[in-house]
User: Fold this.
Amino acid sequence: MQENTDYEQSSGMTRDNIEAVRDKLLRLCTLYLAINSADKVPEMGVSPFIRRDDGLYIYTSHLSPHVRNLIGQGEATCMLCADEGDSQNIWARNRLKFNVEVVEITRDDVNFDNLCNEFTSVHGPTMGLIRNFTDFHMIRLEPGKGVLVLGFAKAFIVSGPNFDITAHISRA
Amino acid sequence: MQENTDYEQSSGMTRDNIEAVRDKLLRLCTLYLAINSADKVPEMGVSPFIRRDDGLYIYTSHLSPHVRNLIGQGEATCMLCADEGDSQNIWARNRLKFNVEVVEITRDDVNFDNLCNEFTSVHGPTMGLIRNFTDFHMIRLEPGKGVLVLGFAKAFIVSGPNFDITAHISRA
Assistant:
């Protein structure tokens, strides 16, 4: 595989078009997580998220094994994926996959209440029910390197919390 | 956590209702996979699948790192998840998560052509384009134990290729 930094030329897509699809994925409500576990297979989960400049936030319960592993390991793989119902070709669902560093925001953190309020405004009244459940944890996922896949031969390297597009991946 | 085998009583849902939601998930077009990798974070992917009595089949390229790990390790975690657009409460998307054993069906296997034909009839003409690409592999995912999540306090243990419901999970 080869990484072409002149990605508009290499992919035949304009930067505006690529970024528009990326930004639509970032407006999804939920993300998928995969975390290495002590078993031979990873843990996996799905969570509502909100986005801020420094990363994506989830609020989730440690009664799920993947959440205990997430906090314990401090690293995970994250994916945003267009709904099947929004995918023209099921073989090439638009998706954004990236590594994250995991940081817990404790209940006494100055930002905790604001983050809860933002969850309520984005994802509705369920947050009011679970806000005081102490098995739930506020977690920031800080994106590192990733890949944006927009179809066959349309895969791009992305980087950082803004998911800046840095290269197009092609067969060498 | 506690597993209640009298799951209708324990969950307040009838077996018919639980199975109807499970079967709707099994009619999805795509599944998510997470595979342990040599890195600290797992690989992750999404693939169209077909279902047969002995498991779920995917047809996917080893140019994706997660496919090389999938074949190399022979085990993975799999998830089917209702579209966001079909989820009444985004905090509790219906989902079915389970461990799988991985078996490759080689191109000279007596079943290979029939499986390809079934992919074409279920997922359309893209299969015709990729059928002869030798970087693609036909893989059977054999489900072991898993969990069906249908909302808060509505999680059930499932088992085997028919995803038989065996227990309701509740806080002890």
Summary: Residues 36 and 42 of chain B are 5 Å apart (CA to CA). The interface with chain A takes residues 1, 28-30, 32, 34-36, 40-44, 46, 48, 63, 73, 75-77, 79, 81, 83-86, 89-91, 93, 95, 97, 99, 123-124, 126, 130, 171 of chain B (CB under 8 Å). The longest strand of chain B covers residues 136-149.
